[in-house]
Amino acid sequence: ETSNKEIILIVQFETKEAVDNLDEILKLEEIDVVFIGAADLSQSLGFPGEYNNPIVKNIIKEAIKKIVNSGKAAGVVVSSPDSIKYWTELGVKFITCHQTMILTEALGNFVNSFNKVVID
User: Fold this and answer.
1) Where is the HpcH/HpaI aldolase/citrate lyase domain (predicted)?
2) pTM of the model as a whole
């Protein structure tokens, strides 16, 4: 019982089949977080790499709505700091990002600071 209270169970769905079965997946009480793998999901839906495709994005938005309404946390990968606001406004509580985003942002900040010192 203690371990059940201290462990978070995260499932990740990345296929059309998982979307089609989301209602059944959400009935599983053990699941705490449902993470959406947008890139692979876009592939499964026939739009490879087009996770911003309106059809893909709408399916993800509908999935998030179902996840949130079930009382579970929805999760996504964010691609930019600006996208964090978009997803959290939809109810996403579990957010990850790629290390390349963090490094790119940090490098950009460094270059801007460097330019201010050297150029200004």
Assistant:
1) 3-81
2) 0.79
Backbone angles phi, psi at 42, to 5 degrees: -60, -40
Domain that holds residue 37: 2-118
**15-63 pLDDT tens trace:** 999 999 999 999 999 999 999 999 999 999 999 989 889 999 999 999 9
How many domains, the chain? 1
Q: For residues 92 and 34, give the distance between their C-alpha atoms in angstroms, rounded to a whole number.
A: 10
**Buried b / exposed e across 21-41, counting CB within 10 Å, b at 16+?**
ebeebbeeeebebbbbbbebb
Residue 18 belongs to domain with CATH number: 3.20.20.60
